[in-house]
């Protein structure tokens, strides 16, 4: 009979599979999921999948991970988000990087190495704040760059 932890991990497995590897391109070993598809929507898609991935990181954190593992997980979704915002290249990167799968593997390795130990649960609120601050900082920088590029482009046509 499955333990509650095994059941929760199985649910995370299914969600991660849906996001990162639900569809295989026929004749290849290349797999992708909703993360790559939603990321095709300019502007909004990558932000939406970043937030979904952030929720997954918080769910994984509640299962018991260290702050170091939590930072690695947030780093994975931040890299996925940053590169994912680059048109076309970012979409191809999403297919190969699979941040959610990486994070699930981090969780499983951590659980395996701490099987019989009491694992301190990382602060989910702290993770949420980290994710929110990253998103706000990125949007501010992106807005600033957009304004600067816009002024340059408009200056060329003036």
What does this structure look like?
The protein has one domain (4-157). 74% of the residues lie in helices and 3% in strands. It has helices at residues 4-20, 34-38, 44-62, 67-84, 89-97, 99-113, 124-157; strands at residues 23-24, 31-32. The protein has a two-stranded antiparallel sheet with strand order 1-2. Helix 1 packs antiparallel against helix 6 (99-113), helix 3 (44-62) packs parallel to helix 6 and helix 4 runs antiparallel to helix 6 (99-113). The protein is flat, with a radius of gyration of 18 Å. It starts with a helix and ends with a helix. The relative contact order is 0.13. The model has no long low-confidence stretch (mean pLDDT 84).
Helix and strand layout, with pairings?
Elements: H1 4-20, E1 23-24, E2 31-32, H2 34-38, H3 44-62, H4 67-84, H5 89-97, H6 99-113, H7 124-157
Antiparallel strand pairs: 1-2
Helix pairs in contact: 1-6, 3-4, 3-6, 3-7, 4-5, 4-6, 4-7
Radius of gyration: 18 Å
- Output mean pLDDT: 84
Strand order of the largest sheet: 1-2
Overall tally of structural domains: 1
Segments where pLDDT lies below 50 for 5+ residues?
A: none
Question: Globular, elongated, flat, extended or rod-shaped: what is the shape?
Answer: flat
Series of secondary-structure elements, N-terminal to C-terminal: HEEHHHHHH
N-to-C CA distance: 72 Å
Oligomer: single chain
Number of strands: 2
Major sheet, described briefly? 2 strands, antiparallel
Strand content: under 5%
SSE-based structural type: mainly alpha
What's the helix count? 7
Helical fraction equals over 70%
